[in-house]
Write a structure and sequence with these properties.
93 residues; mainly alpha; 2 domains; 73% helix
């Protein structure tokens, strides 16, 4: 990583060695963090693209669509409610 420091080469040469070592360490950490940020941004883009896919615009089956899953959950809830109503009706008779 090519670093452009905001001071002269003379100032760098006059800097104590422990301070130089620390600055170099921080520069390396920044480089690693920038690389990781780039990787994460690419991953986010990929995941966002995947999340926009539906059965109409991909090879995914309709059952993987969120709207399908929501309808299935609603249907399951309705069926459970009907079973409870039938059981309650049987108990009260």
């Amino acid at each position: 990583m090519e670093v452009k420091r905001p001071f002269s080469d003379k100032d760098w040469l006059d800097t104590p060695e422990p301070v130089k070592a620390y600055i170099i360490h921080l520069e390396q950490l920044i480089g690693q963090m920038l690389k990781k940020q780039d990787e994460l941004e690419k991953r986010i883009e990929k995941l966002e693209a995947q999340s926009k896919m539906k059965s109409q615009n991909s090879s995914k089956p309709p059952s993987s669509d969120v709207s399908y899953q929501a309808a299935a959950i609603e249907l399951h809830t309705d069926i459970e409610a009907m079973h409870e109503a039938v059981e309650l009706n049987q108990i009260t008779q």
